[in-house]
Amino acid sequence: MKQILQVEEAFHQQRIDKYLSDQAADLSRSRIQELIKQGNVLINEKSCKSNSKVKCGDVIEIDVPEEVEIAVEPQNIPIDICYEDSDVIVINKGKGMVVHPSAGHYQDTLVNALLFHCKDLSGINGELRPGIVHRIDKDTTGLIIAAKNDAAHRALAEQLQKKEVNRLYYALVHGVIQHDFGTIDAPIARDPKDRQKMTVAQNGKAARTHFKVLERFRDFTLLECRLETGRTHQIRVHMKYINHPVAGDPKYSYRKVFREYGQYLHAHQLTFVHPRTKETIVVEAKCPKYFEATLHELREEMR
């Protein structure tokens, strides 16, 4: 359902979330803030933030997705468990698996699999995202941690917020990067031209990705990337920004170059402090077979 409003002079310089909570039918301020975060609120056809100020004459467009009642059911889906105890579980997620139910993906998600495997998951994120502390993209493979109780969830979320969780990724990118190390410090926001994509933008949220070169090939480079922040599509957007997009990325890269579809991006190491024992936990996961096979082919080309 779409609503279009034009700002009158009496509301000039009011915050967009406050303005819409007064003007938009049946929408709470928290729901409006959620819609803004999702890119479903535009001011003069441009995305905005909850604290953006409206001006007299501005045209506000609100796109409210239809509410769909979803019963998240346990499913007996095989999962690769790399670490598990009574508080946390770390999964090596395969390519093509969505982390939690959402529009168009109501079954066969990691949450469905976790509900079958685990008796308990934290309830902080509600019925659709039980236990989920952070996410990785559908076609990104590798490590993701889930919490089995609220105390563990809060502790892990705090570590993520304080940048105390170390997340390392392997990324195969286009082109040959000559310098051995680098940091990409560029804010990320939703792309105003395509709500399904993110982009580097001056008004975006702070985002920093550190990388080091592991191996160079004829037309590609294998990197290890470390996330300092955790923005949506961060590595993929940052690699495109420096003109070295992730190989196989359907949103941000070139046409399909390998047999396997989907980005060559793998979360291979996760380090965190255990919420109960305070022990430092390091979990690792090898690259998928297709990723290793592609690297082997690229090495053969160099001979």
Largest sheet: 9 strands, mixed
What's the overall average pLDDT, rounded?
88
Number of strands: 15
Low-confidence stretches: none
Portion in helices: 10-25%
Any idea of the CATH class of the largest domain? Answer: Alpha Beta
Q: What's the CATH topology label of the largest domain?
A: Pseudouridine synthase
Return Rg in Å. 21 Å
The name of the CATH superfamily of the largest domain reads: Pseudouridine synthase
CATH-scheme architecture of the largest domain: 2-Layer Sandwich
Report, as a whole number of angstroms, the end-to-end distance. 58 Å
DSSP helical segment count: 6
* Element order: H for helix, E for strand: EHHEEEEEHEHEEEEEEHEEH
The assigned structural class equals: alpha+beta
Note down, in words, how this protein is organized:
The protein has 303 residues and is α+β, with helices and mostly antiparallel strands. The chain has three domains: 2-63, Structural Genomics Hypothetical 15.5 Kd Protein In mrcA-pckA Intergenic Region, Chain A, CATH 3.10.290.10; 69-162, Pseudouridine synthase (2-Layer Sandwich), CATH 3.30.2350; 163-303, 2-Layer Sandwich (Pseudouridine synthase), CATH 3.30.2350.10. 19% of the residues lie in helices and 28% in strands. It contains six helices and 15 strands. A hairpin with a 2-residue loop joins strand 2 (41-43) and strand 3 (46-47). Helix 1 (16-23) packs across helix 2. The chain is globular.
